[in-house]
Please model this.
Amino acid sequence: MRSSNALYGGVEAGGTKFVCAVGRGPDDIRSEIRFSTTTPEETLARVIAFFREQMNKWPLAAVGVGSFGPVDPDPNSPTFGYITTTPKPGWRQVDFAGALARALDLPVGFDTDVNAAGLGEHRWGAAQGLDAFIYLTVGTGIGGGGMVGGRLMHGLMHPEMGHIRLPHDWEADPFPGVCPFHGDCLEGMASGPALEKRWGRRAETLPPDHPAWELEAEYLALALVNFICTLSPQRIIMGGGVMSQPHLLPRIRGRVLSLLNGYLQVPAILEQMDDYIVAPALGDRAGVLGALALAMQAHERGSG
Ligand code: ADP
Ligand code: ZN
Model:
């Protein structure tokens, strides 16, 4: 089959950095480049230059983009492939997928960074064989995606799991939160910048026995319980800079069990919690590999 020999391009488009790669999976990456996110003009020009150079070496079948957002992931919308209402300066209403498609003359798959990472985990990592799972990132922001019914979650737009509202005990935690829209939503209370603002030091410098982490686990567990009860995921994958604290996952698992309080009598939760809430199997490669997976999906759809 021709498509099994094809090479793909992937773009992990983050608010801080971009990673572009060419290959066809975790064991076959031909080339990769990373650079800081600057203006849309300059950043997209670097992406296009990288793929043009690659296309001189080998043909690409499609490109996939997993982007920070909010984005428009609806292929039937006139603004498909745009970064839309982002607070990031200069990046509002940027036609990301269109710019790549025109410059490279290739099909472009486009989705949120977390849906892309989720698709990567589904193809090669911790979500293989599942038809309902969540990929949540806890970093500069908090975002969630994944699949329900074997399809990446879309709908009206795409999930914005970082902006759910949680119970906030103002006496125990008087911090008002950092979300410019909501103050004390999940992202406002539990993102990396929220930790830094609340405790006056960067999250990576907070020692494991600091009270920050118990509170962090509490907010993340409250969020997960809400997601478990609404989406019924078969697994939850948690990535992002803040989750690289190794003590955090075990704390979250414990608090999720306590908060559910025995209500969900399923072995995945009662007996296999260590396999239920997990780190990405692809580690920090989930994003860029997921973008490759989006390219494969775009190619498969394009060639029927
Ligand atoms: P981004 O969200 O920009 O893609 P990250 O996922 O690395 O990047 O998130 C960056 C945030 O994560 C920052 O707020 C940083 O303080 C925090 N962070 C990064 N590494 C760690 C760590 N080892 N422990 C705790 N927090 C971390
Ligand atoms: Zn918010």
